[in-house]
Amino acid sequence: xxxxxxxxxxxxxxxxxxxxxxxxxxxxxxxxxxxxxxxxxxxxxxxxxxxxxxxxxxxxxxxxxxxxxxxxxxxxxxxxxxxxxxxxxxxxxxxxxxxxxxxxxxxxxxxxxxxxxxxxxxxxxxxxxxxxxxxxxxxxxxxxxxxxxxxxxxxxxxxxxxxxxxxxxxxxxxxxxxxxxxxxxxxxxxxxxxxxxxxxxxxxxxxxxxxxxxxxxxxxxxxxxxxxxxxxxxxxxxxxxxxxxxxxxxxxxxxxxxxxxxxxxxxxxxxxxxxxxxxxxxxxxxxxxxxxxxxxxxxxxxxxxxxxxxxxxxxxxxxxxxxxxxxxxxxxxxxxxxxxxxxxxxxxxxxxxxxxxxxxxxxxxxxxxxxxxxxxxxxxxxxxxxxxxxxxxxxxxxxxxxx
Length: 403
Fold this sequence. Notes:
The protein has 403 residues and is mainly α. It has a domain at 304-403: Alpha Horseshoe (Serine Threonine Protein Phosphatase 5, Tetratricopeptide repeat), CATH 1.25.40. The protein has helices spanning 2-33, 36-48, 56-72, 78-97, 105-110, 128-144, 148-161, 166-178, 182-193, 201-214, 218-231, 236-248, 252-265, 270-282, 286-299, 304-326, 330-361, 366-378, 382-396. The longest helix has 32 residues, at 2-33. The termini are far apart.
């Protein structure tokens, strides 16, 4: 009697297991027929049952179904992304169930090649490769529709599926940076700088800018510059970044050594000349600073900062002389004031072309316009002063002098 009861129990267990396997088979059939919602309901049920939930092929089937849903979804919205992400996670979990063995039967199914348009849908594998291709296509489609948020999400999925995909990683990083998703941008650009035989200069540029700008971490930015210069020793922009960061970190001696070295290779670089002038100015060498600012303007006549800084030195010199005149005794004033005032006026005159150019480059900058008005007024350049006055009136109103 006991044997009979045991036999009946074993038959019951076998029947239940067989029933669940029938559910999985039904899910496979509905998957191939395109009845995806039905197939998903069935495979979810199988994944809840003790008899089939630990079979990697059951979870793989779920990932296949989700991939087919993902590819077919033309909405290309957050829900679409969620389906794709779920499929990706299930592919990853399936691979873990076979000890990450890509050469196993299941492993080969996960990464099976899929070429849309060659085979009918019922014969396509809808593997992780399908997911990658579909996500890339959706990334392009949404980008062309100016939906950059979704385009980023789809490119990010592609790059997570294949971290060595340089196109997906760069596009994801670029879009993330543009969208203000700086942590995500760093992830993708850091992936790129780890890839051999890839031109990663632009990735370094982005990482440097994020570190110095958004993260306010000049040390990390300088680390990226150092790494980049080992690979791109001739790049002039990296030299400028290095000098700028050293200045930001108040490492004046190192900055001076760096800018001098850079100028040997690129003597007409207006940005480097400006920084060299700034370092000289900080050390008290005003004559040397002025010389570098003037060189910067010769190298690039439309360089706003070069024009402004050169004009500012002439202006400061003139004002310093007039301040000295005001402190002269009556006796000294009679002797020295006329000559000193003439010298100051000459310096004011020297400043005019630099501030005039700076004003042309930034016509809404009222500070420069006010400086020009004061200089022209002092030098009795009446018509020029009135021209500047009219510009200030147009920007600030007729009572601008009373502000």
